[in-house]
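Complex 487.
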Amino acid sequence: MENRVAANSHPLQFDIASSANKEVKISLTCNSAGHSISQRQTFGAALREVENECRRIYTIEDSDFSLTKLMNKVCEYFLKMDSGPSNKIAPIILDTPPKSCQNDVEDTSLQPNYQNVGVKDHIIPQDVNVASKENIKLLEFSGSLKSRNMEAVLQKRYPIYLNDITRGQESVEISLVNECSNIELPDFLYIKNNLAHDDAQIVFSLARISDRNCCSQCRGDCLSSALPCACAAETQGEFAYTREGLLKEEFVDECIAMTREPQRKHFYYCEICPLQNSMLQKGKKIKRCEGHLTRKFIKECWFKCGCSKHCGNRIVQRGIQVALQVFATPEGKGWGLRPVNALKKGTFICEYVGEIVTNQELYDRNKERNAVNEKHTYPVLLDADWGSERILKDEEALCLDATEFGNVGRFINHRCYDANLVEVPVEVETPDHHYYHLAFFTVRDIEAMEELTWDYGIEFGDKHHPIKAFKCKCGSKYCRSNRKKLS
Ligand SMILES: C[S@@+](CC[C@H](N)C(=O)[O-])C[C@H]1O[C@@H](n2cnc3c(N)ncnc32)[C@H](O)[C@@H]1O
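Predicted structure with S-adenosylmethionine bound:
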């Protein structure tokens, strides 16, 4: 075997080698870490186990799927690529992308070259001749998804496939795939939970949770008890969730009605709106408050409650449970989010996670970003309960900014009016509505790989808004950007 490539940065030693007489050999060496291999264990049985696991994880329906065939394909592909011009680039696949990311075309030269930078946190640039091991550079991929070193590589080619953009922080892996456009990798650091910026005042204290709105006497699962406990008080004495872990149909419908139907929308208007004013250029004054949409809250059981972590009234706080994928949208909206499997109406997708900043801080950041034309995600104002207490000052009102630190929620694109997600405010740690979690739930059954969207509530004609509205490509027949009237 003359040409040998090894991905030996990985705990497993993975070698692929070819000889002059067109033989290709893949070898995988694994450290058995003290386990002895008995005669009773057969390689065939292990293969079948892994194949079943792959079918389940990657939802492979093809009954012919076999790892041996897959390895054979890799060898064939390796040989074909190698028989081109001497400096032809050969693909290196360290992990097989799921079927949804694979190209079915016969011509293997058109097949995607997936560059894996996920689990191993390394990328192998493809502009190296695989025959020469010395030429292979493993570019460090640490912290944010994009590093300077990677930029050159990534700007040149797609598709790209990353196993897990969460760096193992979520209980499910969230892959990223670019099959169609030449867009840059997002530059941010994945965080699972909101992080408070220095100036944001959030007080979580046991004293704030009174015995009245906490179920300290409950044990196990509150949803199994005959009567709803104190934690259901916020939702009129009924739990918001079903025993299957879905948001109840009536709750979803009520949320949709409150955001979509003009007659059901409840706005709070303040006289001099600190939120609107802080968004204006200094010196200018807005004439009237644009209104704050009041919404239905969910209250989950919290740390002072006696029930278990598996209680059915703790959905959002358990984090993401469904398989999601970040993908490059073909319509030119940048990255978007989609579920790998079909989902039922009322399924919790994820929270919108970011840096918790004051309205004042957000204003300062946006001014700086606009000055240098820097990209930012759409910020979320935590104003769902605006006006029920005293009006907060700019230095007190809170927002979520997911531009530099955020979770997968930052990839959900906007759709006017008929989006398939609704955002619901959720009390998790504190009854103080000054700070809450914003959770996304599906408003109808969703097909596997259908893009997930929410209505940002943007008015595209709003000249006062500090963030320049994008040209909407949502494709909805009710698109507000195209000024079509709602029927
Ligand atoms: C919260 S981010 C969503 C993720 C974003 N697409 C990305 O690549 O990171 C919001 C930004 O996505 C883009 N976007 C979202 N919805 C869009 C739409 N309907 N049409 C065009 N661009 C959209 C806009 O650039 C917007 O500022």
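The two ends are 69 Å apart (CA to CA).
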